[in-house]
Design brief:
The structure is a single chain. By secondary structure, the protein is of the alpha/beta class. It has three domains: 4-69, no CATH class; 71-175, no CATH class; 193-333, no CATH class. It is built from nine helices and ten strands. Strand 3 (26-29) and strand 4 (34-37) form a beta hairpin. The radius of gyration is 20 Å and the shape is globular. It starts with a strand and ends with a helix. The chain binds zinc ion (ZN) (3 copies). One zinc ion binds at residues 46, 48, 55, 57, 67-68, 70-71.
Length: 333
Amino acid sequence: MKRFHCRCGAQLFFENHRCLKCGLDVGFDPQLMIMVPVDGETSVYCGNWSDHGVCNWLRPRDNSNHLCAGCQFNRTIPDLTLSDNLKRWASIEQAKKRLFFTLMELRLPLESGWQSPSKGLLFDFLDDERSQPGHYSGSFVTSGFCDGVVTLNVLEADDAARAAMQSEMLEPYRTLIGHFRHESGHYYWSLVSDDVESKTIFKGVFGDPKADYATALRRYYHEGPNFDWHSSFISTYATSHPLEDWAETWSHYLYIFDALQTARAQGLITDAVEEMTIAERIVCWQDLSIVLNEMNRSVGGSDAYPFSIGEGVTQKFEAVEEVILRLQAEWIS
Ligand SMILES: [Zn+2]
Ligand SMILES: [Zn+2]
Ligand SMILES: [Zn+2]
C-alpha cells in the first residue's frame, strides 16, 4: 500500500473517509489511485457509503452507476437486515479493496462480470447455517472460485469464527485478504488456462493443472503433505493440487508485493518493489518479515508472516511473474 496525505499534511489511510486531523471528507479515487478530498462536484462517494456506510471509494458524479468501480464487482452481498452482517460486509469490502489496489498496481486486467460476461470477475458474499443459524438452516457455503465468481462465506469476516476455523484446520494463517488473494489466483489462471505459453510455464513448475481434483484433495486431507514439503511449497495446502499450489504461490506473490510496497512507502526500505527481481524481493522480504514477526512477538501478537520460503518456491514465484507479464500484455493490447 502506498502512503497518502491530506492537504493539511496528515497521513491518510486507505480506509479513511475523513481526515482525522482536519476533518476534511476524503475518499479513494480509483482512477487517480490516490486518496483525495471529496468536493461533491466532480466526484462523489460510492452509493454503498451513502446507503450503508460501507466503502470509501469515489465515483464520477455524472456516472450512471450508483456504485464505485470496486463495488460494481459484487453480485451478491449479505442480507443486511440480519445480525452482524453490516459489520462483516464492511470488513469484506476493505479486504477486497486492498486486493484491488494491488491488482491495479500490478496493471492486471480487472473487469467485472457485468462488463465482460465471458472473462469478468464477480463476487458472492453468502451466509449459511453457520453464519446465520436461524435463517439458512441446512445450507453450507464453501468459499472458492468457479466460472468467474469468487464465493466467500461471510463467516470468514467474523474474527472469532475465523480463529476457530484456523485452529480446526491447523493453519498458521487465515485472513480475509488472504482468501481474496488466493481466489484471485484461480481467477487469473482461468483467464490464461488456454494460453499455450502460460500452460507450458505452469506445467514446468506446478505440474498438471488437469490432474484429478477430487482424488488429489482426498489424498491431501487423508495423508497430509510430505515431510519435506517446505523446500518446494509455500504452504501445506499448496501440496494438495497443482492449481492450489499456483493459487497459494500467487497469493504470496501479491502478499510480498503489497508488503514491500508498504515498507517503502513507510520508509523501512529504499528500493521500489517494481524494480526488484523476484530473488531480490524474497531476500528483502525474508529480512523484513523476521523484523516484523519479532516486533509482533514483542507486542504480544502472533507472527505476521508464519512462513519460510524454500529454495524451490523461488522458481514458482518467477512462473507467476511470467504469467502476470502475459496478462498485462493482454490488457494493453
Ligand atoms: Zn487533513
Ligand atoms: Zn464502493
Ligand atoms: Zn484454491
